[in-house]
What we know:
Blueprint: E1 12-17, E2 28-31, E3 35-38, H1 40-43, E4 53-56, H2 62-72, E5 81-86, H3 87-93, E6 97-100, E7 109-113, H4 122-131, E8 133-137
Antiparallel strand pairs: 1-4, 1-5, 2-3, 4-7, 5-8, 6-7
Amino acid sequence: MSVGPRVGSDEIILKRIPSQRLGSPEMTIARPGIGLTATSFAICPRRDEKHPSWSRQRDEASAEVLLRVEAEKGRDISGWRVAAVEVRIVRDELGLDVVANPTEEDPGHCLIVPTSQQPFTDKIWSQLAKRTRIIYTHPAR
């Protein structure tokens, strides 16, 4: 895996959140006084991931573009959402890091990685989830 330089602390990163499937854990939650956020289940690394995959926000259409990529793969993206978080929060408040990891499909691809001060824990995903905001929901059919 080719990991590039650190992503700027002033940037915002995005995560695709699939629609909840029957019997699966919640993917988003409405938090009183905060609004709609991702759940820790939605943002923690998947079994096949060493580090969770995110994407740098490039412009106002970034969220829609992220979901369009999935639609082009033949996935039904009805009800999918996009969560956002500031890199500054990931670094300064949670002690994790964000590094560039561009791919052919997504030149803005990046990874959240642990640091010597903050390894990955269940608690860290819960803390990060509370700091995300859902910024886009694809209309359901």
